[in-house]
Amino acid sequence: xxxxxxxxxxxxxxxxxxxxxxxxxxxxxxxxxxxxxxxxxxxxxxxxxxxxxxxxxxxxxxxxxxxxxxxxxxxxxxxxxxxxxxxxxxxxxxxxxxxxxxxxxxxxxxxxxxxxxxxxxxxxxxxxxxxxxxxxxxxxxxxxxxxxxxxxxxxxxxxxxxxxxxxxxxxxxxxxxxxxxxxxxxxxxxxxxxxxxxxxxxxxxxxxxxxxxxxxxxxxxxxxxxxxxxxxxxxxxxxxxxxxxxxxxxxxxxxxxxxxxxxxxxxxxxxxxxxxxxxxxxxxxxxxxxxxxxxxxxxxxxxxxxxxxxxxxxxxxxxxxxxxxxxxxxxxxxxxxxxxxxxxxxxxxxxxxxxxxxxxxxxxxxxxxxxxxxxxxxxxxxxxxxxxxxxxxxxxxxxxxxxxxxxxxxxxxxxxxxxxxxxxxxxxxxxxxxxxxxxxxxxxxxxxxxxxxxxxxxxxxxxxxxxxxxxxxxxxxxxxxxxxxxxxxxxxxxxxxxxxx
Length: 501
Known about the structure:
It is a single chain. The protein is of the alpha+beta class. It folds into 2 domains: 260 residues, Aminohydrolase, N-terminal nucleophile (Ntn) domain (Glutamine Phosphoribosylpyrophosphate, subunit 1, domain 1), CATH 3.60.20; 203 residues, Rossmann fold, CATH 3.40.50. The chain is built from 19 helices and 25 strands. Strands 3-2-4-1-11-10-12 form a 7-stranded antiparallel sheet. Strands 5-6-8-9-13-14 form a 6-stranded antiparallel sheet. α9 crosses α10 and α9 runs antiparallel to α16. It is elongated, with a radius of gyration of 23 Å.
């Protein structure tokens, strides 16, 4: 079960945090549109609310007012290889050892089957790798003597056994946790909420009344709740936040690994105003367009971007090439990303609802059309047809990333190589299939130069086939998700701890 979702967590003594969590999730809505949820603790009881739909449809003012507490985690999800159902919405919850455990996950594990088999779990109930992680944590907590740090100890025990991609936020009744896998495939950042006394430059406060902290997939979620960015959670690190402040725990995992942040966070997933590796995503995307123009020039009358993620690269292409920039497509702002729709039929239907040509702008013109990527080609083919019908004389498609040829097992919606256009066709064949006059992709070297992060490591497996983690066995058994035989009893426990759903 692969995910590329948004996670959020907040610890703010003396403040009701449900509204902050709502605002944080709202700013992460682009990372998942199928379900949303939050778990909130008042220090004694964790209440979980989750449902299918956008953040704004799952939560309203009355729901938020009914969620008292000063610490919370939240999640917004899209599924890639599993059912889009309420059961798979997050956060996931268990009760063990007299405490509640809630967890939200961005990423995808690659050793789910092995973990389940090693722990004697039986097939039939667990439906996501996130479910499995919470089950392992609950089992570990259940073996421990009562204490204040049981979940922390359980995470130190369980997380080193996980392989693949994860950025977790988790909580018990009095702590929140954030953790990244040793490769750092998915982003996670830490921020501090405003306090009465000044905060030392570049340092977070680790004690003092009223100090609050936030964890989020992307920095705009910090901005929207008024938190100040501190730093990114490091690969292989766990941060623990409670009344005493923030502590960093280095997980007992392999050291000396290079970071492998998914390069598609810069190309597509992250918001333009996000900061990754200290670099603003929007600026990197503009530079992708500049390198694209230098590598792949063409004679044309107008440069246009495919809204929205192709627009910054189109602006850069126009600047570098001297070809005027213009708008050729208008986007319905109430339509989400077709790439992350879970079904092919939904993606195809979403294209016409999402985009419409500006005929007076494109009539009789030679167009350079800039987009960030081609995965399946569904939206691109439909978009090219629209431009042709709108009167474009020539269409020269320029892609601000290399060909997407390999499936991702770490969280992108590409479970099968047969679905990837560039894995099955040459560039000329793709151009003919899409109906464009020419097609060209940015080189990997150009992409890395455009991002411009010296020393920053990336996972480029979807572009190169070079996986940081062996995936052959995972590819054969990725759908084998097993369950523990006690899971049927667990459903009753969840009902006891869940508020209005």
